[in-house]
Amino acid sequence: MDRFTGFIGIALILGIAFLVSNNRRKINYRVVLSGLFLQIIIAILVFKVPFVREFFEVIGHGMGQIEHFAFQGASFVYGGLGVDKGDGTIGNYVSGGFVFAFNVTATIILVCALVAVFYHFGIMQRIVSIIARAMNLIMRVSGTEALSNVASAFVGQVEAQVMIRPYLKSMTKSELLASMSGSLACIAGGILVVYVKMGSQAGMDLAPKLITASLMAAPGALVISKIVFPEVEESQTLGQVKLEVKSSYSNVIDAISHGSADGFKIAMNVIAMLIGFIAIIALFDSILLWIGHLYDPALNLSLNYIFSQLFYPFAYAMGVPAVDVKNVATLLGQKLTVNEFVAFLNLTNKSVPIVTEKGLLIVSIAICGFANFSSVGMQIGGIGALVPERRADLAKLGLKALLCGTLASYLSATIAGILM
After folding, report:
1. Count of alpha carbons within 13 Å of 330, Cβ hemisphere only?
2. Nearest by Cα to 277 from 349, 198, 376, 187
3. How wide is the angle at C-alpha 394 spanned by C-alphas 154 and 218, nearest 5°?
4. Where do the Nucleoside transporter/FeoB GTPase Gate domain residues begin and end (predicted)?
5. If I label 150, which of 18, 57, 158, 226 is the partner at 20 to 30 A Cα–Cα?
């Protein structure tokens, strides 16, 4: 029965996207249907064909090595700093421990430097062209939004935008939303490694599912975003990318230097936005707690509580077994209100226990993405640093991207649940 409940979930997710669409008459149903087809094919290949699953595991591991290489640079800079190693002991940062400001931002800097080198040699331009042709054949989407969505399955949400930096200034609003949505729906390969290293055997077992979630989210984000904000403008990269972007660097050393400097600016914007948004969320929780106690001293009202209740219907509609619906809804609320790190940690350490295999599959895919309030600020700050002239558009599209990224993750989770 849970398998068939998933079809209700698909209808609910697509229905919400349709209701909030800004131009229902212009929805391109070819894009929608072809994107759904791609999601289903990816899920079937990964879940039903062993050698395909193993292949994607190797890819995910390779992309995760970027975080390891970035750590080498961060260790040199922050060596000697004492951090929690995760087992209750304090040790040198070089010997282990995860510090967001050091690990994640170091990865951003490394990726920016690598992308600058790739652009200098013309590699990225050719990748854009290849993916544009492939995605145009299947979904009739532009090269820029196709590249950023596919890249988001392996690198971080800001790094994915760096890959299409020369095109950000001229992208249509629909393309911009699709790109932002894909980055919020997917998870970076480096972050996937962090999840696996959180010290839980459950995290190890979930690795193939998380890779699948990020891959399925790429076409899923395009499906949802093109329903919410259909394309009505002319894209410069639809069908074929014009290779007119030339390197502004004098040599490879210059590319690395400028790329690293740009990455540092993006990293600082990310840190500032995260501090601001998480602090505001904490402020709201404090106010809600006070309001709840005025009504009933035993009512510990919070954003986390409110959203866990709101997401109860989603958890049920996605096909989660009845015994797990309440806890899955709680994790969905935690992921949206705080971040995916908190939700995933509570899942793997069983602070919020999920007892069925199907419930574990659905919730792990549903929370595998950057779609939360603080990430909206991260995107506005990170992409805004790349193209300051588009900051107003980014701010207007931020909440729409959050909705699209969330629904895309839920769509992937629902399809996976049906196939299980």
Report:
1. 13
2. 376
3. 30
4. 102-200
5. 18
Long-range contacts at 399-403 (CB < 8 A, ≥ 24 apart)? 400/20, 400/177, 400/181, 400/228, 400/229, 401/177, 401/180, 401/181, 401/184, 401/225, 401/376, 402/184, 402/371, 402/372, 402/373, 402/375, 402/376, 403/16, 403/20, 403/228
Pair of tokens at residue 402: 């959050």
CA distances from 378 to 194, 259, 270 (A): 19, 19, 5
Q: How far apart are CA 136 and CA 4, in angstroms?
A: 32
pLDDT of residue 181: 92
356: amino acid identity, one letter: T
Closest to 77 in 3D by CA, of 56, 55, 99, 59 = 99
Q: Which string of DSSP letters, residue by residue, matches 206-245?
A: HHHHHHHHHHHHHHHHHHHHHHHS---S--TTBSS-----
Least trusted range by pLDDT, from 98-107, 364-373, 388-397: 98-107
| Sign of the Cα pseudo-torsion (28, 29, 31, 36, in order) | positive
Greatest mean pLDDT among 256-270, 273-287, 317-331 lies in 317-331
Q: Please state, in angstroms and rounded to a whole number, the distance separating the CA atoms of residues 166 and 378.
A: 20
Residue carrying structure tokens 């950057």? 370
Element (H, E) at 314: helix 312-317
Can you tell me the mean pLDDT for 122-145? 73
pTM over 0.85? The answer is no
At 141, give phi and psi (nearest 5°).
-110, 170
Main-chain phi, psi angles of 84, to 5 degrees: -70, 125
Boundaries of every domain in the chain: 4-419
Backbone phi and psi for residue 187, each to the nearest 5 degrees, phi listed first: -130, 145
